[in-house]
Amino acid sequence: MATATAVEKPRRRQAHARPTVLIVGNPNVGKSVLFHKLTGRYVTVSNYPGTTVEVARGLMRYRGQEFVIIDSPGMYSLVPITEEERVARRILLSDRPDLVLHVIDAKNLARTLPLTVQLIETGVPVVVVLNMMDELERAGLTIQVDALAQQLGVPVLPTVCLSGQGVPAVKELIYERLAAPHSDLSSRD
Description:
The protein is of the alpha/beta class.
């Protein structure tokens, strides 16, 4: 009988603990904007890499449930080069969140999908938040969201975080995955 490695094994959440959602992605893809839309808390946002150096934590309240939302520094890979990437990797692999929201710039799939694959390989449940869909459409491009979700084997939600478009679907998916009556994280091994 094969046993799961530490990387593949999700953490066991205590019955009283709030589910934890980690927001990850490259710098400047809208992670902190999504964090604000989910929690109501602002974090420092700028137009240069490495702005979110510290980890921001906040609570999302939705449908009578509370979820801890963590905004991590920008990262390009699970093989860290910068201190920001080391921090994000440590949260992902050591703290073992219940769900990872990988925020992607819809215009730059080729650059961001390698990290998506790495995240999926950790065994932590992943949701791809395909952000900046408005910019993609202005460029005259489209993405077949359902086909991408099928190829990756994880949910893919199109969003425009600045305007809030798609954010209600993100909240609902967090609830469905982590708090709905059929969800039972405490029994995961």
